Amino acid sequence: MALSSFPEYNGSCHPEDWLRKFKLVATVQEKISSESEIFLKTDPSFSIFKIESEHKLLALRFTHLTDVKDFIIELRQLLADAEIFDPKLQKQSILKILPTNLSDTLGLKIAESQDIHEVFINLRNFLSQYKRVLKYGSVITLRHIDTGKLLSSSLHKYTGGSKQYWAYAVNCRATDYESWTVMPELIKDGVPPVYQKDLIVCYGDKITLLNNGTGQKLHSHPYERFNPQ
């Protein structure tokens, strides 16, 4: 109980006596609070709340769009709501909900962490690095180094040549037309590739870029250079 919730000391008694009364009232209120907590935890609604919290915890997922800080805050809150306080059980719960392509090194680092604070520090560092790794399903922009312009597209089509949608560079803030979703290589035209989101794109992988504004894939056509005789 905060000291400010009591009347201001007015000198009517010795300060020690006043503080003794204050401590007595605070102790009684703490006892009431403790007894209320025990009573509420016997209510069937609390059992349902714990089960729901456990389900939410297992369903919690981290993707490239998730904010690291918000994820960790929600994770810690759900662990508390589910009353998972044992460090070993907390570590097991965390490992269950991390991305499936979690590196063995980090999994081992979390498992061997001495306390839960170290676990969350390692988790924060890993997730921050994980967000910077290119994955299938990632939404990216492509910027020209020299000009700083972004690769864009539009619903307009070329009147000649391929007669496909425009692909060009623009100097503006990124919109859907400057955003591209990373997908695996398109094997057959007209058949969208099947892939697992958040799977890391490895060096040498052939990829497809889908423009989020037009829904069309970035591609090129054979072009024969004019060679005058």
TrEMBL record:
<keyword id="KW-0677">Repeat</keyword>
<feature type="domain" description="MIR">
    <location>
        <begin position="131"/>
        <end position="185"/>
    </location>
</feature>
<dbReference type="InterPro" id="IPR016093">
    <property type="entry name" value="MIR_motif"/>
</dbReference>
<protein>
    <recommendedName>
        <fullName>MIR domain-containing protein</fullName>
    </recommendedName>
</protein>
<dbReference type="InterPro" id="IPR036300">
    <property type="entry name" value="MIR_dom_sf"/>
</dbReference>
